Amino acid sequence: MQNNVLDTIESLREEMKNSLMKMITIPAIGPGNDGDGETKRADFLMELIEDFGFDSIERYDAEDERTSSGIRPNIIATKKGKTDRNVLVIAHMDIVPEGDLDLWDTDPYEPVFKDGKIYGRGAEDNGQEVIAALYAAKALTLSGITPLYTLKVILVSDEETGSKYGVKHILDKGLVSPDDIVVVPDHSQERGRKIEIAEKSGLWVKIVAHGKQGHGAAPGSAINANRMMAKYQNRVDELLHEMFDLENGLFSPPVSTFEPTKREKNVPNVNTIPGKEVQYFDCRVIPEIPLDEVKSVFEDTVETVTRETGGEIEIIYETDKEAPPGTPEDAEVVLRLRSAIHKVMGFQPGVCGIGGGTVAALFRRIGMPAAVWATSDCVPHQPNEYAVLDYMVNDCKVFATMVTED
Ligand SMILES: [Zn+2]
Q: What is the distance in A from the centroid of ligand 1 to the CA of 91?
């Protein structure tokens, strides 16, 4: 029975490749990235899966006037199982723009198949998994198998620009149950050898030092914003690393990271003392440390530095995302994934945490233990992005196994 569906998936290899390549020719860039949205791609997918044997295919579109269709499409395709439990496989239809075309060897929207790889924008992120999830259902149908669990393939919009019109819309409509098993195949660690169960909190801080501009030869009447910022940055950098050195072995690196990154342009000439300086910090904080504690270091340091230098310092939190508690290592989704991966790929995957963010956090936040897993070479958002046909076929087998195995 089991082998039957895996053989069927193997026989669909060429068709899966062609479907992914066709999908890549239909860009799906969100209006937040100056695109016209995902509607054309969603229509293509609706047509593709008409005869895949889904028991229902439903649309939950969110309104968005910025696109020519006026909507951001979301698709829930359900292949019923013998029990009420659902396995949700959530993949996103939207892609990021192609970026600098000079960096591409081929047209990002004219996919090319070479050495087992499909090149094109969105091939890996998240096209490979959109196709893998859908063909798991088709293979079950062709094999005449009613899975044990119900397979719900949820294809969303807007993952790359905030998820308001995608996963958040689906959650707001109450379309998931608390005991659903949630897999988000949208990040790969060590080519599928790790299942992601936790994410760091993200805090992006913009710091604006307001001093008083003056002549380089007459510092007495100025307040040098550059010096204010230098002091502030040094102090905050040292304090953060001193205070928050707690480690969590799930993550690599295991510690929180606090990096001064972007600095805005100040004065154009050497002999003017800048009156304003703008600096950013990118902080990725392990979930054990409350972001409020990190913020208070940024805020307290303002006092110390302005007391010494005069002037004012303003703090703006541009991104402020407290990570929800991670998914337990023995959660059902982790155990089922692990056993399916072992069966299909022959190895036991470990678990890990990441510094970035996926939509899994939205599920974890409402108490649903989501897991993130896929197989890829990790080339999302890059020029010459590609999917690997073998990975797509294997991931499809893993999804099918997850819903059929005891
Ligand atoms: Zn993605």
A: 8
Looking at the structure, do residues 42 and 155 belong to the same domain, yes or no?
yes
Residue with tokens 């054990």: 288
Same domain, 176 and 214: no
Q: How far is the CA of 97 from the centre of ligand 1 (A)?
A: 13
Q: CB-side exposure of 372: number of CA atoms within 13 Å?
A: 24
Looking at the structure, do residues 341 and 314 belong to the same domain, yes or no? no
CA–centroid distance, 374 to ligand 1, in Å, is: 11
Tell whether 143 and 246 lie within a shared domain: no
25-43 residues labelled b (16+ CB within 10 A) or e (exposed): ebbbbbbbeebebbbebbe
- Sign of the C-alpha dihedral computed for residues 153, 369, 157 and 26 taken in this order: negative
Going from the Cα of 64 to the center of ligand 1, the distance in angstroms, rounded, reads 21
Same domain, 213 and 122: no
For residue 84, which phi and psi values (nearest 5 degrees)? -80, -10
Just list the catalytic residues: 94, 159
pLDDT digit string, tens, across residues 240-256: 999 999 999 999 999 99
In sequence order, what E strands does 80-180 have?
86-92, 112-114, 117-119, 150-156
Q: Which amino acid makes up residue 34?
A: D
Residue that finishes a domain, picked among 321, 348, 377: 321
**Among candidate residues 293, 321, 349, the one where a domain is terminated:** 321
Both tokens assigned to 36: 């016209």
Place of tokens 């953060």: 240
Residues 287 and 385 in one domain: no
Same domain, 94 and 54: yes
Distance (Å, whole) CA 122 – CA 27: 8
| Mean pLDDT within 340-349 | 96
Spatial separation of the C-alpha atoms in residues 159 and 41, rounded to whole Å: 15
Which stretches of 143-210 are DSSP H helices?
167-172
DSSP secondary structure letters along 278-318: EEEEEEEE-TTS-HHHHHHHHHHHHHHHHHHH-SEEEEEEE
Which pair of tokens denotes residue 49? 């899966």
Task: Report how far ligand 1's centroid is from the alpha carbon of 52 (Å).
Answer: 24
Residue 265 in tokens: 């342009």
Q: Where are the alpha helices (DSSP H) in 32-128?
A: 39-48
Task: Say yes or no to pLDDT of 3 above 90.
Answer: no
Report d(CA 369, CA 182) in Å as an integer: 7
Domain span at residue 206 reads 201-321
Asked whether residue 84 carries a pLDDT value surpassing 90, the answer given is no
Total count of domains within the chain: 2
Return the CATH number at 356: 3.40.630.10
